[in-house]
């Protein structure tokens, strides 16, 4: 049974999709989620961090009653998302990054008013909230603009208002800053934090593949890859797991024919991430101790690779991901696309 | 997990709020772009012109001109059902609205009803414009025998027709492109089978009887009987019988829409393939 103090709880949730039109011998199932057990407390801003295709959106769909899990159970606000979906829905809302919801011919106000009616908000109250929230996100002067005439960033701000105007108990934000420029992303992040601070009974589950966003916003973060939760803790605690490592950021001349794997084989090198570049390549080394660095530099030199700059830095969530998965999120995503 | 999602009764007030809110974009949005006057009124009028000229050239009774104008006005409703009502849930999914509708604490049936209501009101405006232009250009004489009967007939026709549209919208969502092809196939044959440009009585009795499954067939026939002096002579069935069939069709289609929608929602939750276009 779920704990009433938890806004979200999942117990061994799994989701398997049946693939259609697969050739003989190829797998006919796709495991999107496997054995996910999580708890999110009331008042928490919880982050799901993982590359595209990790299972974040699948988990959000399950928690927002859009999708049944293949195994396990999930509760939102103490209610079973399948058995009590009707009671869950008034307590939640969701916003997805890059969504084009609403109707282009309607104005911003009209679109938001339409959605407010589905939640039973009286028209006058809905219009008051719409006006107030649009002002807060800096969209007040666009209230009578057709939504088709909004830029991607402004449209996303409208979507954000749509999610917040129903004042949900639990809000699901699926990549809310996707496709936004730096300024708009900052505005949205600030708004999310202020909204949560205003009422301690509110809870947000946010998915992102932006490490800095998770680090800045979230009270706790679950790192997810290939449908499995690999770690779950506060950003600070997750980063502390790498305190024993010495992390170096090296800028070097392109590796050419040298395979990065040879540096990984140096005793004391725990992880290596290689970002190729035209004139400059970067290498992120996770070393068991600083003394290993001299061997790394020697190896670079013996392979004709010139060191341009070297910097020791503090661990980030990206480093935690690399440590857990063995590759950077960028590498995992490009592997998925291939 | 194979559990069915719960039913979604959220009260009559919420239901009505949803109907009105979802009708709003259809009614306001559809008339916000003035191009509808050209595409939805002027172009259908060209088809009407063609039939009128043919009938006049062959010396057909003048009543046929009125039949053509009325049939032409009603084509707007069939086009609205095929290309707007039926495809709407499909487009809502493509746009990302469908998942928001499912997550919202309201009835999906109310959302579908709102689409239908908005469609009826917006299309009635187009239909009236065609009717008035036809009246003005071709000097059609309307002799309404009973405005009340006309109103009841039109309302029943709309209820059954949009009930059919609500039902097919779930089918479109389930079968996607296959349903799309069926809609293409249904467009022209229905113009023929429902007697848009001639009295349906001209068809073989059994063909006309089968065509009566399309609500516009009997609705149009009954309305023609009510607004043209020679209408009763050219009518397919007595008006009360046509109204009875329309009532039966209304109940069948709306009940069908309710169950199909519930089935679609269950499928959406179980298989997750209906809330996004690519999974």
Structure description:
The complex is a heterodimer of chains A (338) and B (279). Chain A is of the alpha/beta class. Helix content of chain A is 33%, strand content 28%. Chain A has helices at 56-63, 85-88, 108-118, 123-136, 152-164, 182-197, 211-217, 235-240, 261-264, 292-302, 317-325, 329-337, and strands at 6-18, 29-41, 45-49, 71-76, 79-80, 92-96, 170-174, 203-208, 220-225, 228-233, 246-252, 269-275, 281-287, 307-313. In chain A, the strands form 3 sheets. Chain A has a 6-stranded mixed β-sheet, sandwiched between helices. The longest helix of chain A has 16 residues, at 182-197. Chain A is globular, with a radius of gyration of 23 Å. The two termini of chain A are 42 Å apart. The mean pLDDT of chain A is 90. Chain B is built from 11 helices and no strands. By secondary structure, chain B is mainly alpha-helical. The chains are: A alpha/beta (338), B mainly alpha (279).
Topology:
The complex is a heterodimer of chains A (338) and B (279).
Chain A: E1 6-18, E2 29-41, E3 45-49, H1 56-63, E4 71-76, E5 79-80, H2 85-88, E6 92-96, H3 108-118, H4 123-136, H5 152-164, E7 170-174, H6 182-197, E8 203-208, H7 211-217, E9 220-225, E10 228-233, H8 235-240, E11 246-252, H9 261-264, E12 269-275, E13 281-287, H10 292-302, E14 307-313, H11 317-325, H12 329-337
Parallel strand pairs in A: 3-8, 3-9, 6-7, 7-8
Antiparallel strand pairs in A: 1-2, 1-4, 4-5, 9-10, 11-13, 11-14, 12-13
Helix pairs in contact in A: 3-4, 3-5, 5-6
Chain B: H1 12-32, H2 36-57, H3 63-95, H4 97-103, H5 108-138, H6 147-175, H7 177-193, H8 205-211, H9 215-227, H10 231-234, H11 239-271
